[in-house]
Fold:
Amino acid sequence: MATTKILIVEDESAVRELLAATLMGAGYEVIEAASGSEAQQAVGDQDPSLILLDWMLPGMSGLEFAKWLKRDERLSEIPVIMLTARDEENYKVQGLDAGVDDYVTKPFSTRELLARIKAVLRRAGSDASELIRVDGRLEMDLVQHRVLADDKPVSVGPTEFKLLHFFLTHQERVYSRNQLLDLVWGRNVYIEERTVDVHIRRLRKALEPYGLENMVQTVRGVGYRFSVRPT
Structure:
């Protein structure tokens, strides 16, 4: 099942990268734009399921972009969540009047943001990120927090679940141990690189009874990759 595409429109690169990492970690496909004009191009090319839109943008403001989007019959159904440091009622009313579906005030927690995204996508009927299937044999259900292989439950620990989720949403790309530590465990967690090897072994052992352990591949001298293609 395809993952849900989210377009992030944010001119501050650090904020955009943080949002992208958060969304990819939650199973979403991410498209990035640093301005309203870039976002206009991305909307036409990429067909996102939802837009995270910063209010303060160079050139065209987020509010102006939202109005442009809602005037176009082909694009008007794409839900928009406005991100802004402005929490005055007047600004919220302007955003809602422009057709924005929800409004999140900075600073916000990632849990709150993901909950808002899920709620808006649910209302729009386009949240496909809660069930991930691979090669017709492996399935991850994020709602029920379970993994199935050939329709049989796979016993995985919480860290292996997070690691597998990351791999399923980032297939065919090689990641070093350091990258996996940052993206799966988090940048503020200080543990040894070899910890990754331990959990890789556990994940492979859980998949081994179903003959799927070779999907978690070692790339010698670089790191690890998840692939349905044989090495």
Observations:
- The CA atoms of residues 53 and 82 lie 5 Å apart.
